């Protein structure tokens, strides 16, 4: 499955972001804690060069906490300030003001020496589609300032939001980059709902997710869908071999269809419906706390940069 999605409006949004960078002091980048590397737009590092940086590991309640700690260490080692948050419940949001002040300490001190007092920090909020930027802004502000939705592309243009005397936020549309050189990145973004579902083959996508879960979180599927699914997942050997693993994953998907009563008119198994259920369960966190990737080692990171 070759996944590429870059609607035309994203080019316009990127140009607007580039123009507005000169107005801001800090880039607040939201990433999905389940895919902290894949959900980072590599263009942001170039656009935000020379700006203070704060990364928010959003949806941290859905991610494997041990792996989130590893990601925090990885980002901090590269000069980023990092906070784990859950924008929907507000968890972690109280730590953000202190993180903003720390990230912009040099700028605030520079203003003080010049006699400029109480000038608010101006921060641009960035991230890929459906990572939760608007939900974060509304939760952080304590009121509905930005439109929200559970599909990519809800925020259409940039808008300034004054939170307090010390902080102003610039909300921006979610943007991807023109081409995924690594198809695993595209796959992970499809898993979390950052790619338009209408261009995806959901059964293929579900099979890939089953293959990953069977290897990394072997109890997750059985806990959600029952003993028959657990047995099917347990008997799907050689998941590390992609071809055999996908065949085994389709057998597991059929068992999920049985477990959820997904039947066609002729009483056959409706694996398309089962795939939609599986993906929705994963995206909603009902399969437990799952992280799809670990921090890359230096060799992998260099390949990604190239």
Write a structural description.
The chain is an alpha/beta fold and 306 residues long. It is built from 13 helices and six strands. A six-stranded mixed β-sheet has the order 3-2-1-4-6-5, with helices on both faces. The C terminus is likely disordered.
Strand order, biggest sheet? 3-2-1-4-6-5
Give the biggest beta sheet: 6 strands, mixed
How confident overall, as mean pLDDT? 89
Number of helices: 13
Family: Belongs to the TRAFAC class YlqF/YawG GTPase family. MTG1 subfamily.
GO molecular function, one term: GTPase activity
GO biological process, one term: translation
Function: Required for a late step of 50S ribosomal subunit assembly. Has GTPase activity.
Topology (elements, then pairings):
Blueprint: H1 9-20, E1 26-32, H2 43-47, E2 52-58, H3 65-76, E3 81-84, H4 96-103, H5 105-113, E4 121-126, H6 133-141, E5 159-162, E6 167-171, H7 183-192, H8 202-216, H9 220-225, H10 227-235, H11 242-259, H12 271-283, H13 298-305
Parallel strand pairs: 1-2, 1-4, 2-3, 4-6
Antiparallel strand pairs: 5-6
Helix pairs in contact: 8-11, 8-12, 10-11, 11-12
Feature tags:
alpha/beta, six-stranded mixed beta sheet, 6 strands, disordered C terminus
Quick structural summary:
It is built from 13 helices and 6 strands. With 306 residues, the chain is of the alpha/beta class.
């Amino acid at each position: 499955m070759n996944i590429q999605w870059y609607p035309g409006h994203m080019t316009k949004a990127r140009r607007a972001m580039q123009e507005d960078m000169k107005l801001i002091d800090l880039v607040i980048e939201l990433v999905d804690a389940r895919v902290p590397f894949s959900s980072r737009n590599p263009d942001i590092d170039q656009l935000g060069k020379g700006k203070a940086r704060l990364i928010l590991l959003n949806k941290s309640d859905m991610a494997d906490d041990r792996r989130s700690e590893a990601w925090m260490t990885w980002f901090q080692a590269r000069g980023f300030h990092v906070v784990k948050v859950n924008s929907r419940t507000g968890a972690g949001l109280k730590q953000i003001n202190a993180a903003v002040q720390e990230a912009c300490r040099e700028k605030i001190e520079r203003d003080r020496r010049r006699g400029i007092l109480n000038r608010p920090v101006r921060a641009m909020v960035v991230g890929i589609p459906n990572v939760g930027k608007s939900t974060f802004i509304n939760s952080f502000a304590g009121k509905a300032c930005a439109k929200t939705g559970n599909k990519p592309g809800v925020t259409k243009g940039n808008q300034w939001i004054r939170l307090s005397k010390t902080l102003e936020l610039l909300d921006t549309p979610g943007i991807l980059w023109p081409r995924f050189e690594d198809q695993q990145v595209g796959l992970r973004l499809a898993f979390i709902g950052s790619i338009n579902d209408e261009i995806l083959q959901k059964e293929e996508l579900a099979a890939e997710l089953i293959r990953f879960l069977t290897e990394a979180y072997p109890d997750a599927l059985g806990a959600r869908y029952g003993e028959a699914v657990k047995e099917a997942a347990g008997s799907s050997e050689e998941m590390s071999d992609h071809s055999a693993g996908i065949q085994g994953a389709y057998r597991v998907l059929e068992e999920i269809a049985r477990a959820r009563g997904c039947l066609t008119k002729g009483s056959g198994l409706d694996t398309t419906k089962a795939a939609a259920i599986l993906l929705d369960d994963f995206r909603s966190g009902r399969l437990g706390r799952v992280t799809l990737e670990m921090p890359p080692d230096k060799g992998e990171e260099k390949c990604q940069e190239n």
